[in-house]
Predict the 3D structure of the following.
Amino acid sequence: MEVVAGHQFHFCFPILNNMKDKKIENKLVPYQKKASLLLESAGGLTIKTVDEIESASDVLLEISTVQEKIKAERERLTKPAKEIISWAKSVFDPIENQYKEAERLVKSKMLDFDKRQEEKNKKKLAKIAEKVASGDLDIDKAGEKINGLTPVKSYSGEIGGIQLRNTRKPIITDLSKLPRKYLKPDSALIRKDLFNGVKIPGAELIIEKSVAKNKI
């Protein structure tokens, strides 16, 4: 139970006690043994004749059948967890997004204030330089005034404080000038355009054989 600004929030989450159930682990033992046997069988296959490739197709179907059973068991176990995650996102995301936006607004206004302060200091520095150049201000006095314009890097309230930091952030200023190694091809777009008959220099469609399994 948590109290926030006069409101009470109580979240109850279903616990998946069966996720680590020994019965489930025991149920998977036959599949583990079968997978080991099939892997051993696949490794020992030799295909040099029509009879051997036909026998291998039976092995392939057996592998596929076991895979489907494992997939169904995995889905049975993970579906409740996926539903909980989906529900949690729908409940928490809108709230978290409001907090994130509130934080963004506060930080943005802080940076705007800091920028205005920097601009004021630049103008003051320019005036100091003018006075020194005209002889209206001696070097020592100018130094004292300049020291008084040292940028403030931290602020503290009653319960919280902030530090203003300079961090390096890479940005792309001209995509056309980037070396090739920094350009990642859009494989999905290339595939789509090639299948639609678009000629793309440096890319082409090739014919590649694969094995499609089916049950007789």
User: Anything to note?
Assistant: The two ends are 59 Å apart (CA to CA). Helices lie at 22-43, 50-134, 139-147, 187-195. Residues 1-16 have pLDDT under 50 and may be disordered. Residues 115 and 122 are 11 Å apart (CA to CA).
